[in-house]
Amino acid sequence: MFSKMQKLILAALLGAPMLAQAAPVNLVQNGSFETIAGGQSGVITLIANSSRLSGWQVGAQGAELRHNTVGQASDGKYFLELDVSKNSSVSQILNTVAGQWYTLSFDYSNRAGTAVNSNGLGWSVGGAMEIAPELAYNRSKGNVWSHIDWSWQATGSSTTLSFYGLGKSDGLGTSLDNIAVTSAVPEPESLALAALGLFFVGLVSRRRKSA
């Protein structure tokens, strides 16, 4: 039979995996737009298919990266607008696991002092189009950030994530920042503890049978 101390150790090993927190893994590269070639203050205009914005494919109408211009970023220094002269898009291919659930999160804001119908933001994950809730008129002098969390289930080993500027194409659009796609996965330590716990369960079972 096991001693009292051995039983306590066994209980701790079996309980640890359930108490351990899952580590979120962000699949999005450069989700806050901080990695930009030739980064600078002010406004950075990105042309179609520009390679300056690491991790992202810039759409046909380009995009506008801003730093302390008509607002501040929600995370880091830079934020993105998808209406340079016309509505545009950015996209990125994510490595996913079929059947796995993920959570897309991001921050968005109407442009300050701009009509509500000039703003608008949509996104798609694997082709399914979604539209962000309409925000109230922004009377401030900068961004008023709102946050979205949206869960989805992957259907393949790669998934295209895209964001689109919506509303009136007039060069005055929604601000976007702090994009992440996460999936809760067990920490390696938790998996090791779980395996060790199963080993001890088997050992206890064998000792009981032989007693």
What does this structure look like?
With 211 residues, the protein is an alpha+beta fold. The protein has two helices and twelve strands, in the order αββββββββββββα. Strands 1, 2, 4, 5, 7, 10 and 12 form a seven-stranded antiparallel β-sheet that branches. The chain has a five-stranded antiparallel β-sheet with strand order 3-6-11-8-9, with no helix packed on it. A hairpin with a 2-residue loop joins strand 8 and strand 9. The termini are close together.
CATH class of the largest domain: Mainly Beta
CATH architecture descriptor of the largest domain: Sandwich
What's the helix-strand series? HEEEEEEEEEEEEH
Based on CA atoms alone, the radius of gyration comes out at 24 Å
Ends apart, CA distance between termini:
8 Å
Concise overview:
Helices cover 18% and strands 34% of the residues. By secondary structure, it is an alpha+beta fold.
